[in-house]
Amino acid sequence: MTDHHDVLIIGAGLSGISAAVHLAQAFPEKTVTILEQREAMGGTWDLFRYPGVRSDSDMYTLGFAFKPWEHTKAIADGWTIRDYIHAAAAEHGIDQTIRYGHKVIAADWDSARARWTVTVEVAGGERLCLTAQFLHFGAGYYSYTRPHRPAFPGEERFSGQIVHPQFWPEELDYAGKRVVVIGSGATAMTLVPALAASAAKVTMLQRSPTYVIALPAEDDLANLLRRVLPAGLAYRLTRANHLALTFASYQYFRRAPRRAKATIRRMQERMLPEGYPIDVHFSPSYDPWDERLCIVPNGDLFRALREGNAEIVTDRIDTFTESGIRLVSGQELEADVIVTATGLTLELFGGAALSVDGAPVDPAATVSYKGAMLSGLPNLTMTFGYINASWTLKADLISRYLTRLIAFMDERGYSQARPVGPPEPERQPFITLQSGYVRRMIDQLPRQGLREPWRVHQSWLADWRLLTRAPLADEGMRFSGTAAGSGQVGDAEASRAGAPAPAAAGVA
């Protein structure tokens, strides 16, 4: 008997649980199954176990739209987020639909049968095949097994321990030891104050500065609303407030970068020791949001610097030595433990290879459709969150779009929804961030067009309109019937919108 499903969801993190709950609410009669490569739910929030791991955005927007965040902390610890995801899945029965230890190796679309055949590897290396009408990839955007880990000159000589945050060893004892954290991203900003609580000394070694701002760990207004209003209403109001603040601050940073830099600097001057060299350690050469800003709750990083438990060194590595790191400037950093917080490796589709009718698909040759699908890939949605706001904001909108799309197809008897690329030849990068992890992989990512429905918005309001209100039949979509030879019954609707001819698989 064929192991067939109406929808297969890849990944049991925030994105996958969001999609599963929306689908279960909209289509209780459909078979929706989550495939999770690991043995636990939670995605990022189960994988990362390094000291101090926490959200880098507020939980009122990183939380699900359908489940209020009821903890007092707006910027939450990793294990609290993991518990929240588990609770959301259990409340909706989604925890019973997850197949753990199922790593998707490949997926091939069969146009004649209008279904995906998914190859899965399970324990012991055995491979299974499942089929589905729809695939939803909620596997995130980075590799769980291959973090970015550059080789450093002389590292084999170092007599201490070298660890990467993505694979933090439970038994690591850093109390009373000298620790050097290489990196200046969100992970390093989280690790340094957490390690400084018990280490003898913590040094954050960065090649160049990052914009760092302090925000309260708790939202006093949210906590007040929760005390005086029903939980659901309090959550909706708080979520709307944080949405508005996020949008307004991003616009301010992008439209008035000089004033934004001055604002950030004034905040840092108040929180750092008098005379601290801000220009050296906290003044990037780029504008805010060319790369992501780092948030430190209650200014914990600045407090560690004030108290002398931590320091920042801005320099480049010459070589590792037996006792630490020698820098290009000649300075030597002694260390017992070196933490390589050197970033992520971008990876689409959880590393699975995609094909259409046996022809391999190159993601870089596709164009995003509404930020939720890719040209040439029928019946496939994917979640790629915002670069300037919480990931789950986009995940929830894409989940709502998926339910709209399936309901539309069911009502009209369509079995295939195939996005096509724009008629204009111009293309733009899928992501505009200049962060290292993006630059390293930008040539392997899909592209975006210059206009809707092929433009990737970084605005919740624009996406809310596009994904939950805009027509489903437009010039970028081709719908067709239930079997081979049934005719492109959706083409007439698209043609009236002036759509181009359908694109080949993987070709924009």
Molecular structure report:
The protein has 508 residues and is of the alpha/beta class. It folds into 2 domains: 4-144 and 345-471, 3-Layer(bba) Sandwich (FAD/NAD(P)-binding domain); 155-217 and 264-340, FAD/NAD(P)-binding domain (3-Layer(bba) Sandwich), CATH 3.50.50. The chain is 29% helix and 21% strand. The radius of gyration is 24 Å and the shape is globular.
Helical run tally: 14
* Proportion in helices: 25-40%
Which spans have pLDDT < 50 for at least 5 consecutive residues?
Answer: 483-508
- Kindly report the average pLDDT value: 92
Largest sheet: 9 strands, mixed
CATH class of the largest domain reads Alpha Beta
Number of domains: 2
Class derived from helix and strand content = alpha/beta
Reported CATH architecture of the largest domain = 3-Layer(bba) Sandwich
CATH superfamily of the largest domain: FAD/NAD(P)-binding domain
Q: How far apart lie the N and C ends?
A: 37 Å
Secondary structure tally: strands: 25
What proportion of the residues form beta strands (DSSP E)? 15-25%
Outline? globular
From the alpha carbons, calculate the radius of gyration and give it in angstroms.
24 Å
Q: Remind me, CATH topology of the largest domain?
A: FAD/NAD(P)-binding domain
